[in-house]
Amino acid sequence: MHVRPDSGARWVVVELRLKNTGATVFDDAPGNGLKLIDTEGQHYTHTFGGVKEGVVFSSVTANPGDSRKSVVLFGAPGRQTREASIFAEQRFHQRTGAWAIP
Questions:
Q1: Where are the beta strands (DSSP E) in the chain?
Q2: What pLDDT shows up at residue 65?
Q3: What separation in angstroms does the CA of 80 have from each of 8, 38, 58, 84, 97?
Q4: Series of mean pLDDT values for 10-residue runs along the chain (102 residues)
Q5: How far apart are CA 1 and CA 84, in angstroms?
Q6: pLDDT score of 30
Q7: Given CB 3.0 to 4.6 Å as the disulfide criterion, which of 5, 23, 69, 102 pairs with 17?
Q8: What is Dmax (Cα atoms) for the chain?
């Protein structure tokens, strides 16, 4: 399914590779806790849709040592600069992380 961003907005597509470094099977929807944060501190949550740049993460199952690559899709204002960061919060697992987007 290919959808379009809201009027005045654009898609921000972020490619991620998740690697299960634990000792048990990882089974979760990693996009649920992700937020895109722009240089002004504005937060955007992920959205679902189809893009030609890759398969959007939904649910991921990975055995220990396995990795999965996919994209996460965000809708952000057209004025958005390329500089941003990703913040992840998995409430049930009480883990957070942050990454700069080059």
A1: 9-19, 26-28, 34-38, 43-47, 60-62, 67-77, 84-90, 95-101
A2: 94
A3: 11, 7, 25, 9, 22
A4: 72 84 85 79 79 77 91 78 62 60 62
A5: 26
A6: 74
A7: 69
A8: 45
